[in-house]
Design brief:
10 helices, MetI-like fold
């Protein structure tokens, strides 16, 4: 939880907490080892690594949260509705989900960026679209378990619409499962954001991101072998903490 608390603080106030200007270049101080002046050293342009790590947190973390929320909205609502639609519509929705699941992630993101522009919003939307099928399947499975309950049948016999049944009875049963899935999706979305920014999709240099820092450091492993450690640890610790929270929530849900 301490890791997630620190991550939340960085997501909100990372640039303000940066000890130095994350964009300030000092070629004379390039590739320095960690010191009192630069706690994590400097990169190939002499920029303070700790400051760039803090300043890059909002773009990386908030994009992951936004992508997970987009996937939740695009996937969970149609997934729950698919349990109440006619068989033809149900079959079509399942085939559409299968098609999205079959898309290569990186290739889809590159094509998406080429069509709509290479920006963080486009990258986040692309990740959200590819996360949506997972939410669709989870929401559909949870809704199917609830759909055959007697009180759902009674509401249907009384003339209640599918949307009314969903909003009044189904969502409260499905919501805990979707919350757990959302926490799990956050870790995957963060990895996806880091992967895209590593490839130069989304945020463009010199703006810092954790994935972009990894990419730039790999070119100087001979002079600065510890360079990728800081952004890699930030990604690993954040994803690991999110997975632990998701596992704990899943265990708690199973015991209820």
């Amino acid at each position: 939880m301490l890791v997630l608390l620190a991550v939340a603080v960085l997501a909100v106030a990372g640039p303000a907490l940066a000890p130095q200007d994350p964009l300030a270049q000092n070629p004379a101080a390039a590739l320095q080892e960690p010191s009192l002046t630069h706690l994590l050293g400097t990169d190939y342009l002499g920029r303070d690594v700790l400051s760039r790590l803090f300043a890059g947190a909002p773009a990386s973390l908030l994009s992951a949260v936004s992508a997970a929320l987009i996937g939740l909205v695009l996937g969970a609502v149609p997934g729950a509705l698919s349990a109440f639609v006619p068989r033809v519509a149900e079959w079509l929705s399942l085939r559409a989900v299968d098609a999205l699941l079959a898309l290569p992630f990186i290739l889809f993101a590159i094509v998406f960026a080429a069509l709509l522009g290479n920006g963080l919003v486009q990258a986040t939307l692309a990740i959200g679209i590819l996360v949506a099928p997972g939410f669709f399947r989870i929401a559909r499975a949870a809704t199917l378990r609830v759909r055959d309950s007697q009180y759902i049948d009674a509401a249907g016999y009384l003339g209640a619409s599918s949307w009314w049944i969903l909003s009044r009875h189904v969502w409260r049963q499905v919501a805990p499962t979707l919350v757990v899935a959302s926490v799990s999706a956050l870790g995957g979305a963060l990895l996806a954001v880091a992967s895209l920014t590593f490839l130069g999709i989304g945020v463009q240099p010199p703006a810092p991101t954790w994935g972009g820092m990894l990419s730039s450091d790999l070119g100087y492993l001979g002079q600065r072998p510890w360079g990728p450690v800081a952004p890699a640890l930030a990604i690993i610790l954040t994803v690991g903490a999110l997975n632990l929270v998701a596992d704990a929530a899943r265990d708690g849900l199973a015991h209820d």
